[in-house]
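Shape is hard to put into words, and the shape of a protein is harder than most. The fold becomes a row of whole numbers, each drawn from a learned catalogue of backbone shapes. The outcome of that step, for a single protein, is printed below.
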Amino acid sequence: MNEMHLYEYAVIRYVPRVEREEFMNIGLVMMSKRAKWIKARLCINERRYSCFDNAMTIDRLADQCNGFVRIAHGDKGAGPIAELLPEERFRWITAMKSACIATSRPHPGRCKNLEETFDRLFNELVK
């Protein structure tokens, strides 16, 4: 029998000028507390990026965003937050921020396969 998983996801966004409230979707973070599962992935589209008045280089943006991914995946070299439980790391990543890297509000869902659902959402919302 295939178990249904309750999950939450949020879109990772690049907000080049916070005061303008413009953004582009650059990644996804998804978590299932009961499954003790969390995943994050980035895809910074250079063509879209070049349409904004950018305060930082694309390499610096990628470097900062990779910190989110490392924390999500529990990389010990990413600092003490990476050592938290998956749901705590998800809450830290999705906390409201007034910064150039932010997330959408978390959205819930249910699925049978977390990996397939993550890939589907990533392709729909980020790519």
About this structure: Strands lie at 5-14, 24-32, 37-42, 101-103, 107-111. The longest helix spans residues 58-72.
